[in-house]
Amino acid sequence: MASRPDVRQRHREQREATRVRILEAARELLEERAWSDLTVGLITQRTGLTRSAFYKHFGDRASVLRALLEELSVELEAVPDPWQSGDDNPAELLRGAVRGLVHTFAEHGRLLRAIADEATQDAEFAGLYAELGARLSAGVAARIAADVEAGRSSVKDPVEVGAAMVWMNERYLMMRFGRRPLADPERCSSALEEVWIRTVYGASA
Q: Which of 14, 119, 172, 176 has the fewest C-beta atoms lying within 10 Å of its C-beta?
């Protein structure tokens, strides 16, 4: 006899709840220890799940990190949206995007450190991380190119400047928020705002 729809729905909800527990446990553990020290055993201990229950949802610890990267990618790509799509006062919109990026690193920097570390060991992970950087860089380049066309910016090579800014951000913010003790977000925001505004819109913006 086929299971009733409400029973199937309840099972789906239970599976999703277990998956979320595993991801949250991994996030918590990365606040306490390096990625190299995080094991499946620690995750199951934190969640109270058996190993067999864990492996019903994830093949290994790297697949947990991959799922966390997918979630965080959505958040990171949303940060510059107001600047990239807005026309009124673009310099102020850029300042807001920079502050949002710093906030994201302050909140998730330890996870981002784990992702970056795994990318040095796993070619597939390195590709996913590079693709995220490429998407972010393309968005920045498109916005700068639009500002150049509108006469608001004098950047000569929006594509290369966009890539340079994104990856310089990544290194700087990883250094400041990738491990504890964390830096002062306000001070980091001010520094990056100055670099971005001067680069894209000039010293007078």
A: 14
